[in-house]
Amino acid sequence: MLTEAEQSAVESTKTGIPPGDPEPKLGFWQQFWEDVDCVFDRDPAARNRWEVIFTYPGVHALFLHRIAHWLWKRRWFFLARLLSFLARSFTLIEIHPAAKIGRRFFIDHGCGVVIGETAEIGDDVTLYHGVTLGGTSWNKGKRHPTLENGVIVGTGAKILGPVRIGEKARIGANAVVIQDVAPGMTVVGIPGRAVIPPHQRRIPAHGIDLDHHLMPDPVGRAIEQLLHRIQDLEAQVARLNREREQVRQDQVRGEAEYS
Fold it and tell me: For the chain, what percentages of helix, strand and coil (3-state, to nearest 5) are there?
């Protein structure tokens, strides 16, 4: 049997990647095709590459952003902002050219998505329409969220400020998140609350749960617990009333016998 180190060395000879190193950096067109192909893992409506390339605004916005980001890093700020503006006009998705976006990023439907200047997005992240990665300050510096690998953000969610969303966390539809989220947690509500620990979550084989309508409601759960508590208290009051009535009847009978 080979040790882990030996197995890693064997794999490195096959792939050409030194053991322990991150994924290799792709060329522009390699990354483009990777962005296209990742759609098939997350959208069952996707049929073929041509359909994705020509009809998915999220793919268009990401393609143009990668060009704008390349221009931004070379300090061609006006051209980068102009391209970002044209992309927003065409796709209804606004991504600041300075935003850092990792591999296999997917925006489903796309309309109304806003990603701010200092936002950072890891690999395999999915956003649905209406998502905002916004800031809460006019000061320069880090003021937008950081999304780690594998994060899923539901429809209409707002993540505001320099918060960090941990790896494989899920943000429910229309949630407003203003605090850090631990890895693997599910967050819903306004303000966002983490409601399900990882060991209680239902994770399908492919690792992406699209049942947003089944996400738990922390307020509803709190009300349910209060109702159960009220029922318990009413049962206790009824029992005490019966006991008091029994004691009163016993006293009446005792007084009658004594007299």
Answer: 45, 15, 45
Distances in Å between the Cα of 158 and the Cα atoms of 3, 111, 145, 167, 259 are: 45, 14, 10, 18, 78
CB 167 within 8 A of CB 184: yes
Give the integer Cα–Cα distance in Å for 152 and 163.
15
Distances (CA, A) of 187 to 138, 168, 180: 26, 12, 10
Residue 4 pLDDT > 70? no
- Provide CB contacts within 8 A for 249, sequence distance 6+: none
Q: Where are the alpha helices (DSSP H) in the chain?
A: 4-15, 28-37, 39-42, 49-55, 57-73, 77-91, 218-258
**What amino acid is encoded at 62 in this protein?**
L
Cβ-based burial of 138 (10 A; exposed 0-12, middle 13-18, buried ≥19): exposed
Mean pLDDT of 96-107: 89
Phi and psi torsions of 31, nearest 5°: -65, -35
Side chain identity at 123, as an amino acid letter?
D
Select the more confidently predicted residue: 15 or 26: 26
pLDDT in tens, 158-212: 999 889 998 888 888 888 888 888 888 888 878 777 775 555 555 555 555 555 4
Cβ of 254: how many Cβ atoms within 10 Å?
Answer: 10
pLDDT of 250 higher than 50:
yes
Judge residue 113's burial from the number of C-beta atoms within 10 Å of its C-beta, 0-12 exposed, 13-18 middle, 19 or more buried: buried
Peptide bond into 145 cis (omega under 30): no
- 169 closest CA partner among 150, 155, 156: 150
